[in-house]
Amino acid sequence: xxxxxxxxxxxxxxxxxxxxxxxxxxxxxxxxxxxxxxxxxxxxxxxxxxxxxxxxxxxxxxxxxxxxxxxxxxxxxxxxxxxxxxxxxxxxxxxxxxxxxxxxxxxxxxxxxxxxxxxxxxxxxxxxxxxxxxxxxxxxxxxxxxxxxxxxxxxxxxxxxxxxxxxxxxxxxxxxxxxxxxxxxxxxxxxxxxxxxxxxxxxxxxxxxxxxxxxxxxxxxxxxxxxxxxxx
Length: 232
Description:
This protein is of the alpha/beta class. Helix content is 56%, strand content 13%. It has helices spanning 14-32, 47-75, 92-98, 106-116, 128-132, 134-144, 153-165, 174-189, 202-205, 218-231, and strands spanning 5-10, 39-44, 80-83, 121-125, 147-149, 194-197, 215-217. Strands 5-4-6-7 form a four-stranded parallel sheet, with helices on both faces. Strands 2-1-3 form a three-stranded parallel sheet, sandwiched between helices.
């Protein structure tokens, strides 16, 4: 069976997009052998421009831009589409409705990994949008039966600052790692059986071996799932 072409929105931020590209290609090479590699159409945005669109026009404006990008990627020959970032899935339903190809949702791939591990209650780390808006938590609960716990308000704001002021700028600081591990300890105390690293930059900061419960690297899970779908 010929490889399907993965369509991808990248650049939000480029640090995790590099890892997506590496993981998808490596997965295909390992599974298919030889000199095999993934077929990918990637549109990489200027993150500063996208953040400016969000600040000026809100999520509707971001959705308009992402739909335009997704249609370009579809037109370039993609067989399915991924958003290589958790937060932008706030507009995923709108993007999927505008396309003639499927969208592989990051929350769905992550949920399958959580269910395979036999877990029912999970802690969620990410941007304030991912943690507090309905698009992620409600999908996990209503579609997959997974209860989600999130940090308190101060920790939400602190983590959001770490992501936008450090991680997307390729700054991975020991103090911020310790802060995140402290937040994880609180979520475990609140009953979390595992932790979703629900920002694709977080696995670049927090090593799985440092987390006291199983962690779910959304970047790795999503990228491998995309490669597997491409291989059929």
